[in-house]
Write a structure and sequence with these properties.
The termini are far apart. About 30% of the residues lie in helices and about 25% in strands. A hairpin with a 4-residue loop joins strand 1 and strand 2. By secondary structure, it is an alpha+beta fold.
Length: about 150
Amino acid sequence: MATATVAHEDPASSAAAVPGSKRNLLRDIILIVLLIVAVFAIAMHFWIYPRVMAPTLTTPYQAVLLMNGSVYFGKLSRTWSDYPVLTDVYYLQSVTNNDTKQTSNVLVKRGKEWHGPDHMVINAKDIVLIEPVGETSKVAQLIAESKAQK
């Protein structure tokens, strides 16, 4: 006659394999906490850090040099953004005297163009440098003269 044997599992050793066990619950809680910390760290890096590290502007006007060599003067805001905004914009234009063939630079207020822009939104990746326009500089004097003529 054949005898049947019944295998008995030890209840203590099978608890680790049960999905709802305390060990798996603790692991899941730790993973969730780590995920929350990681999301918070990423948010800090992409949202808060650029705002804290934005340059401090100490003068009313800034000179903004772009990668294409253009220089614009104006009031720069949103320096923490991927798209800073320049308002009250001026730029240099070279003018040649036909009689003397001498070239001089003239500061021109932006906004006289056909589309009449009142500001510039600049891709931050195109900015090479930002410099303050000294309040006693020639550019600041020309801007003040331009405003006085209005």
